[in-house]
């Protein structure tokens, strides 16, 4: 049978979809383009914002419309959140548990063609669901999910309610999985989770210990952390960053609000002074590091005055890129019951921050003109090859470089969002 898979949302979803793909291939299914007429459609959904919900619904309905006789499987966060109000188009509903049992569920469905609902309550999301990959079908950078769940309960965020409590992958399994991926040619590994830096607290270890062991793996060129909270950049983690060239020159550290007033309303676990001191510590260890962030605009409590002051703070911190998210009201969270900021005001503020982000990004790029940087290439087309540096600059060269190859590139100019260079012979 032909299966089309569509993935929305985060890197954790990407990893889980890749694992589902592996399970299907191992059991004789054919993986097809999602836009094809398939026997089965799998949508790995997201619910982090209202926009994510809308897109998840749209993709589910499009699949059933494309082939009314197909089995439509919806899994992940949107389904988990909407468990008492599922769409009629869904034949198999799987939340954030039992994704690894997808083949078993498909067989069960085709035996009697009855709808299957495998959704569980949040309090039942207590065990780490073991998944293991030794290759990726279409990537040169391999994601490894090491952790699931979150217990921070930020006032705006629905994720703790749909992903459950923090839980970690077995330490030795993490190492074995990464060793297998490296052995199979992957030069860069990205550690991912819902709350990645929380790794190990439920299994008597910690994130720093895992990092120390991973960077010692023979043949691994780059280790990237998908995202880490400022509060988790403790002395032990910073020591690994300081001493291991395998850790890339890029950290994504979410700030979410550049205002102490809003951070407090959000129930974040730091204030601006703490955050800015932590950034200074990182830059003392790695002066050229790229530090990117997430920021929410228009959260309840954000006045014009607070927003304008926030812009000054963001400029002072000097991130290399801002990922800007207009606040999205999520029913069931504390922020949803607060007085809301006007939608047009949110859009206007978002545009301001996106313009600021572009300026910060170009300023960071300029620092590397005439520098020689190592690039792992990911794709090529019509004589143009594109890849990323350790500090996550997107590099374009006029040359045919095979996917996965690493080359030293002399950076010459900026053609946003790329830097342009030539291969050093």
Number of strands: 19
Name the CATH architecture of the largest domain: 2-Layer Sandwich
Query: Shape, please?
Result: globular
**Percent range for helical residues?**
25-40%
Output the CATH topology of the largest domain.
Answer: Transcription Regulator spoIIAA
Largest sheet strand order: 2-1-3-4-5-6
Which structural class is indicated by helix and strand composition?
alpha/beta
Number of helices: 12
The residue-averaged pLDDT reads: 97
Low-confidence stretches: none
Describe the structure.
With 425 residues, this protein is of the alpha/beta class. It folds into four domains: 2-120, Methylthiotransferase, N-terminal domain (Rossmann fold); 123-248, Transcription Regulator spoIIAA, CATH 3.30.750; 249-366, Transcription Regulator spoIIAA (2-Layer Sandwich); 372-423, Beta Barrel (OB fold (Dihydrolipoamide Acetyltransferase, E2P)). Helix content is 34%, strand content 23%. It has helices spanning 11-26, 50-66, 77-81, 102-112, 159-163, 171-183, 207-214, 235-243, 260-266, 272-285, 304-317, 343-366, and strands at residues 2-7, 30-32, 40-45, 71-76, 92-94, 116-117, 141-145, 147-148, 167-168, 188-192, 222-225, 250-252, 290-297, 321-326, 372-381, 384-389, 394-397, 406-415, 418-423. Helix 7 runs parallel beside helix 8 (235-243). The longest helix has 24 residues, at 343-366. It is globular and about 65 Å long. The model has no long low-confidence stretch (mean pLDDT 97).
Quick recap:
With 425 residues, the protein is α/β, with parallel strands linked by helices. It has 12 helices and 19 strands.
């Amino acid at each position: 049978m032909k299966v089309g898979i569509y993935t929305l949302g985060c890197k954790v979803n990407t990893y889980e979809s890749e694992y589902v793909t592996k399970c299907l291939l191992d059991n004789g299914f054919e993986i097809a383009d999602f836009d094809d007429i398939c026997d089965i459609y799998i949508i790995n959904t997201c619910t982090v914002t209202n926009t994510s919900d809308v897109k998840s619904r749209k993709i589910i309905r499009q699949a059933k419309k494309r082939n009314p006789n197909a089995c439509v499987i919806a899994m992940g966060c949107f389904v988990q959140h909407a468990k008492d109000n599922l769409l009629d188009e869904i034949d198999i509903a799987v939340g954030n548990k039992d994704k690894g049992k997808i083949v078993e569920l498909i067989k069960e469905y085709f035996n009697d063609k009855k709808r299957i609902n495998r959704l569980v309550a949040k309090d039942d999301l207590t065990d780490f669901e073991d998944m293991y990959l030794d290759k990726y079908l279409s990537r040169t950078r391999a994601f490894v999910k090491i952790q699931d769940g979150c217990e921070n309960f930020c006032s705006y965020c629905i994720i703790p309610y749909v992903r459950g409590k923090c839980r970690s992958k077995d330490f030795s399994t993490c190492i074995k999985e990464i060793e297998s991926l490296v052995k199979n040619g992957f030069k860069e590994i990205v550690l991912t989770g819902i709350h990645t830096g929380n790794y190990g607290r439920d299994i008597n270890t910690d994130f720093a210990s895992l990092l120390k062991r991973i960077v010692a793996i023979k043949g691994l060129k780059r280790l990237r952390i998908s995202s880490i909270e400022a509060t988790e950049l403790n002395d032990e983690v910073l020591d690994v960053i300081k001493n291991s060239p395998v850790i890339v020159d890029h950290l994504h550290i979410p700030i979410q609000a550049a205002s102490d007033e809003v951070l407090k309303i959000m129930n974040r676990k730091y204030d601006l002074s703490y955050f800015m001191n932590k950034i200074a510590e990182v830059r003392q260890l790695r002066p050229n590091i790229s530090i990117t962030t997430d920021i929410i605009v228009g959260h309840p409590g954000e006045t014009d005055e607070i927003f304008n002051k926030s812009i000054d703070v963001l400029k002072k911190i000097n991130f290399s890129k801002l990922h800007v998210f207009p606040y999205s009201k999520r029913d069931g969270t504390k922020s949803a019951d607060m007085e809301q900021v006007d939608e047009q005001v949110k859009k206007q503020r978002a545009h301001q921050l996106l313009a600021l982000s572009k300026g910060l990004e170009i300023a960071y790029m300029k620092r590397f003109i005439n520098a020689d940087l190592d690039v792992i290439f990911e794709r090529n087309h019509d004589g143009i090859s594109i890849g990323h540096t350790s500090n996550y600059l997107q590099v374009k060269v006029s040359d045919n470089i095979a996917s996965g190859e690493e080359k030293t590139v002399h950076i010459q100019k900026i053609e946003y969002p790329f830097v342009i260079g030539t291969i050093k012979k």
